[in-house]
Structures are given as C-alpha cells and as structure tokens.
C-alpha cells in the first residue's frame, strides 16, 4: 500500500496526516510515478493554510522526483523506467507513489540525483524565470538585491545570477546564513533584522540603487525593496513569507523613480512549450554540468511532515528541504 500526506481542513501544520492510499492505474495522458524524493517548499504551507485556495480533503505538494512505473494511453515522449522530476498541479507530491498528468514532467539527466532534483526543480526553475524573464532589461553587470539569499531558492538564485554576470547583494538573518550565501557567490550581505536595507543598498551602489529586487518575503520587506531600486528599476515579488504585498500606490511608484512592480507566477512563464524548453534547458544544463551546487539543508521522512512545515514557517531552515521517500 502506498503512503500519502493529506489534509481534511485548512490550518496549521497539525492538519497534515500520513495515510495509506490506493494509487490505481494511470488514465489517458497520465503516468504513475514511484517517488524517491519530494520537495518541501514554503508554497506548500500556503495550500495547507488556505492562503492558496484549495478544496479539502486533498493531498499536498507540487514537486517530486522518481521513476515512471506505468503509462496511461496517449502518453508520448516518456517510457516506463524513465527518471523524471516535476513541479506543478495537481497537489499530491507528498507520497510514495502517485498518478499524475505527464505534462509537468521533465526527464532527468543521469548526472542529476533524485534528491538534487527534488530539492531544486521548483526552486531552480523559479530562479531561472525570475532572473531571465521577469525583468527583460536585466543584463550582465547589473546589481540586484536578493532577499532570503540563504533560503532554498535564494542559494540557487545566487549561483545562477553569478553565472549570468550579475552582482548580488543578499539579505539574511544570521551569520550562519551569511556564510552559506557568501559560499555560493553572494557579493555583499545585509543583515535585514539589524540594518536598514535600503540605506545599505544605497551605500553599496554609490547612492544609485539596484536595477532589480527579488523579494520573496512580501509585506515586511516591500517598502525597503521599493526604496532600494534605482530609477526605472523593477521589483519582482517572488513570494510572501511574511504576508501579502500591500496594495500598490501608483503615485508612490512614480515618486520612487518611475519604478515597476511585477508579481509573476510560475505557470505563466512555463505555459509556452518553447519558453518552457528554453528555461528548462538552461537550468538542468547548469545543474547536470555541476556548475550549480544544490544545498540540501534538511531531510525528512513523510511521517515528519508536521515538523517540516513548522521548521519552514519558523525560519529554521537553510537551503532546500526535502522528503526522502
């Protein structure tokens, strides 16, 4: 019997339950996957809490890596035995096996382990579209501000940004996290709990500000992020760990220097097949070649899902968190 984490009402981590489940056979356009590792992402807490709309009872998790064990009718491009990873709906990645659509799947090069894939498919592909697509004017030589630089996405984004020729100013909460961010290539560190982020950014950029801010924190950092931008800079709202971004004051955006704000969604940057292939080739190419190191800071079993979510929400994690199945 397979195992899966489910929840029957939205709420805190305690609503998560590990259960025996019947998986069944894949239907048209579907595959059955046996997981080896599963991603544990902050976005999962949004589904569990109800911040992202869901209809319980349901599974949880959108990122996993494993082996295809059965194919449904009409599935092309994949075969039983293929090593794959994915990020995308429907929920249900927190499981030992599952049936899901074939559309979100990516074939894994042999040089990428299942744990690396589970720790970096969502995070790495997110960092890729942020840095390559979310601000089309970004270019080598620009200076960016990256919040949560020692987080699961942050450590990957730092490395990719350096490969793209960018100067990275990263914010962190502790010396331990600063050490991790520096090790991955972060050029400058700001301790956001004890320093004025915008003032430090101005000091580090000769008063000009940065071309782009990547803000995955949200409510608590929004004002400082805006004030860190140079004229006509772009604030990319990547996440809302501290709460939703406040309503946008268009007049304030003008006063700040005719700056821009965008709140991109993964699905909108991977919907077009050609764009999806381009971004995936860039990310998995770097990963397969060993140019990017995946920092797995926490490994859990599925039975530890409550603890994993508590650690995420308390900010106790460094790098990526995964479930080893």
Provide structural commentary:
It contains 10 helices and 16 strands. The chain has helices at residues 42-49, 114-134, 152-163, 175-183, 197-204, 222-227, 250-255, 266-269, 273-288, 305-313; strands spanning 2-7, 17-21, 30-40, 58-59, 63-71, 83-87, 97-101, 105-107, 143-146, 167-172, 188-191, 210-215, 229-237, 260-262, 296-300, 320-324. The strands form 3 sheets. Strands 3, 5, 6, 7, 8, 15 and 16 form a 7-stranded mixed β-sheet that branches. It has a 6-stranded parallel β-sheet with strand order 11-10-9-12-13-14, with helices on both faces. It has a 3-stranded antiparallel β-sheet with strand order 2-1-4, with no helix packed on it. The chain is of the alpha/beta class and 325 residues long. It is 30% helix and 27% strand. The protein has 2 domains: 2-121 and 285-324, Quinone Oxidoreductase, Chain A, domain 1 (Alpha-Beta Complex), CATH 3.90.180; 123-267, 3-Layer(aba) Sandwich (Rossmann fold), CATH 3.40.50. This is Quinone oxidoreductase. Keywords: NADP, Oxidoreductase.
Low-confidence stretches: none
What proportion strand? Answer: 25-35%
Which second-level CATH architecture of the largest domain applies? Alpha-Beta Complex
Task: Report the strand count.
Answer: 16
Shape: globular
CATH topology of the largest domain: Quinone Oxidoreductase, Chain A, domain 1
User: What is the level 1 CATH name of the largest domain?
Assistant: Alpha Beta
The CATH H-level superfamily of the largest domain is Medium-chain alcohol dehydrogenases, catalytic domain
- How many independent structural domains? 2
Helix content range: 25-40%
* Nearest-integer average pLDDT: 96
Rg of Cα set: 20 Å
**Count of helix runs:** 10
Helix-strand makeup class: alpha/beta
Distance between the termini: 14 Å
Order of helices and strands, N to C?
EEEHEEEEEHEHEHEHEHEHEHHEHE
The largest sheet, given as strand count, sense and whether it forms a barrel, is: 7 strands, mixed
């Amino acid at each position: 019997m397979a195992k899966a984490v489910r929840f029957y009402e939205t709420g805190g981590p305690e609503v998560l339950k590990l259960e025996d489940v019947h998986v069944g056979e894949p239907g048209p356009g579907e595959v059955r996957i046996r997981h080896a590792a599963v991603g544990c992402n902050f976005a999962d807490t949004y589904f569990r809490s109800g911040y992202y709309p869901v209809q319980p009872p349901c599974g949880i998790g959108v990122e996993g890596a494993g082996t295809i064990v059965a194919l449904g009718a009409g599935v092309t491009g994949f075969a039983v035995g293929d090593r794959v990873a994915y990020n995308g709906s429907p929920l249900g990645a927190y499981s030992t096996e599952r049936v899901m659509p074939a559309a979100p799947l990516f074939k894994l090069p042999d040089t990428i382990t299942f744990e690396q894939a589970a720790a970096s498919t969502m995070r790495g592909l997110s960092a890729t579209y942020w840095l390559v697509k979310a601000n089309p004017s970004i270019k080598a030589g620009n200076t960016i501000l990256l919040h949560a630089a020692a987080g699961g996405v942050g450590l990957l984004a730092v490395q990719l940004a350096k490969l793209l020729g960018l100067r990275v100013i990263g914010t962190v909460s502790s010396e331990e996290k600063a050490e991790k961010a520096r090790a991955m290539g972060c050029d400058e560190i700001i301790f956001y709990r004890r320093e004025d982020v915008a003032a430090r950014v101005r000091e580090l950029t000769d008063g000009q500000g940065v071309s782009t801010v990547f803000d995955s924190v949200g409510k608590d950092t929004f004002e400082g992020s805006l004030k860190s931008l140079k004229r006509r800079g772009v604030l990319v709202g990547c996440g809302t760990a501290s709460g939703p971004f406040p309503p946008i004051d268009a007049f304030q955006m003008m006063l700040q220097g005719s700056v821009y704000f965008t709140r991109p969604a993964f699905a909108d940057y991977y919907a077009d097949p050609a764009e999806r292939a381009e971004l995936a080739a860039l990310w998995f190419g770097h990963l397969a070649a060993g140019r990017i190191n995946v920092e797995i800071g926490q490994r859990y079993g599925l039975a530890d899902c409550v603890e994993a979510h508590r650690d995420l929400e308390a900010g106790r994690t460094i790098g990526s968190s995964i479930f080893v199945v």
